[in-house]
Amino acid sequence: MKAVIITIGNEILKGRTVNTNFSDIGKILTYSGYDVIKGIIVPDNLEQIAGAFKEASSIADLIVSSGGLGPTYDDMTLKGFSLAFNLKMERNDNAMNMVLKKVHTLTPEREKMGMIPENSIPIENKAGTAPGIYENISGKVFIILPGVPREVEAIMKEVEQRIRIKDFHYVDRSIDLHDAKESLLAPLIAKLMKEYGDRAYIKTHPKLDNGKPWVEVEVSASGTDPDEVENFVSRILEIIEKEADKSNYE
Amino acid sequence: MKAVIITIGNEILKGRTVNTNFSDIGKILTYSGYDVIKGIIVPDNLEQIAGAFKEASSIADLIVSSGGLGPTYDDMTLKGFSLAFNLKMERNDNAMNMVLKKVHTLTPEREKMGMIPENSIPIENKAGTAPGIYENISGKVFIILPGVPREVEAIMKEVEQRIRIKDFHYVDRSIDLHDAKESLLAPLIAKLMKEYGDRAYIKTHPKLDNGKPWVEVEVSASGTDPDEVENFVSRILEIIEKEADKSNYE
Known about the structure:
The structure is a homodimer of 250-residue chains.
Chain A: E1 2-8, H1 10-13, H2 20-31, E2 35-42, H3 46-59, E3 62-66, H4 77-85, E4 89-91, H5 93-100, H6 108-112, E5 115-117, E6 121-123, E7 132-137, E8 140-145, H7 149-163, E9 169-178, H8 182-196, E10 201-209, E11 212-223, H9 226-246
Parallel strand pairs in A: 1-2, 1-3, 3-8
Antiparallel strand pairs in A: 4-5, 6-7, 7-8, 9-11, 10-11
Helix pairs in contact in A: 2-7, 3-4, 8-9
InterPro entries (chains A, B): CinA, MoaB/Mog-like_dom_sf, MoaB/Mog_dom
Protein name (chains A, B): Competence damage-inducible protein A
Domain MoaB/Mog (chains A, B): 4-166
């Protein structure tokens, strides 16, 4: 199953905010059984938000967005989403109750957070006011989250079980090769990918400590039996550890 | 002038690595005078890399990518870039000399880093081995960087002056409003955006400290005269500070 992550917000494009929501969501989707095939980052702009949702839904089964659900003038994610799929925005009692649990007085800006696209389901936001949104359009699932990281985390916890692919186990382990150089390891990694690449993914991450280069080698794979996947990944890591020693380090 | 940032790498999509390159590049482009209109994140996949470059060049004047310039099998950014614009890959003497400055022996994987797309210019990488790439195709400028953050920083330093838009000054200041609530500030922000929105951009960032919510209000603008822009932004911040006091905090 394929997933696309959308991040909405000028502050991300301007580099004012580091996009930790993206990695938090990416990790959850990967461990839940999805192949995250693209990330799209757009500004607080109605047409661009609508365009991102349309593009994502044309290539993925699951689309998760974060940002733009708040009370201010530039929070327009739900409007953009509705524009993309020609949906009406409706006052939703469940959503409004979720908002009212958090605030004492209802202003127009707060009422806005209780207006959601038709047929969508509000998801409780235990860490903030604006509910998350779950919607299924012709078999494509959309999860729409606010931009505050702790709220993303809280809402993802609520929906994780709903999107999890059954009997899927993803394992990602790594080994630190001190004194190794990425370019000298490359032939070994290429050889192992030829042998195990139909199932495993091996990637080298070059590092530097006090001017001394070293390499972290990551091996990941997935399967239905957790022990079997774990053993498979461990076996490849053992080969790397043994064979890397023989590589001609400069 | 419009810019698009492309990030290449499975580790970003899987959430294994937080995309700090994106914010580092976004900040430099914003302060250099560009409007970053989109971010595209793709895996280590030839067609998807080519697609990202094509998409970016159809909407932006400047395209900056990071990731996939190294020596391993899955470093294929230059191949994807060449595929997108039908360019030949050529051995480039300057690029090869830059690589040879860093390594003692030349393996096939290292030679790969001296092969670059036709008509492109290698940019010195003072923090690593793979040179960055600068290429102008029909007036669109492409800057292609490795994925290691310190190398991104080093190469961007080399090209910053070349891409900087003359007489452009971007100012971004903020004020912390303790005891404020984003939804209650919203009408004031909307009012100010009506008055100053043709030039200024105002955004609220809700925060939480020990369970106590507060709001950071960001004001940014740009212009040719640095003092004038600074004064303009300060004036709006002063209004916010004064008027926010009057907002009916719950």
